[in-house]
Amino acid sequence: MIRSGIGYDVHRLVEGRKLILGGVEIPHHVGLEGHSDADVLCHAIADALLGSIGEPDIGHFFPPGDESIRGISSLEILRQIAAILAEKGAIIHNIDATLIAERPKILPHVPQMKEHLAAVLGISVGQVGVKATTNERMGFPGREEGMCAMAIATVDLPV
Question: Residue 141: what pLDDT?
Answer without folding.
Answer: 86
